[in-house]
Predict the structure.
Amino acid sequence: MKNQNAIGLDMKGSKDLSQKLNELLANYSIFYQNTRGCHWNIKGEKFFELHLKFEELYNDILLKIDEVAERILTLGHSPEHNYSEYKKHSSIKESKHVSDGKEAVKGILDSFKTVISLQREIMATAQKLEDEGTSALMSDYIRAQEKMVWMYSSFMNK
């Protein structure tokens, strides 16, 4: 099929979807580094609890970064890999030195809101394109992250 990529999806649609996935990749990359900063710099009475939770979170984000980049490649396009590009395309901004637990968790919750919203948009686009692979990936991410939002929100007494 002339207008289809190697996995049978519309070439223009998969290109548009790859651009949105690159935007997600940018947001995840900044989210990852911000979370590492929280892990490194956290202080206070909840240090042991948060230090461990932030490490779990950044390891999870790192896996997602790789999966999103590989999905872009599967669609026949190239993932961005420069932080200069990530900074241009990410809605999540680099955090400054964060050592307060509540401030760190607030930043994480804000970042989750951003990526979940973007993933819903990507999932809707993927469904229109009949791209089950991308749609399922986004669905899995959203389900797990909604639970994390509930848990981090509970920490904040929300």
Summary: Residues 36 and 79 are 22 Å apart (CA to CA). The two ends are 52 Å apart (CA to CA). The chain has a mean pLDDT of 96. The helical segments are 11-41, 47-74, 83-89, 101-128, 132-155.
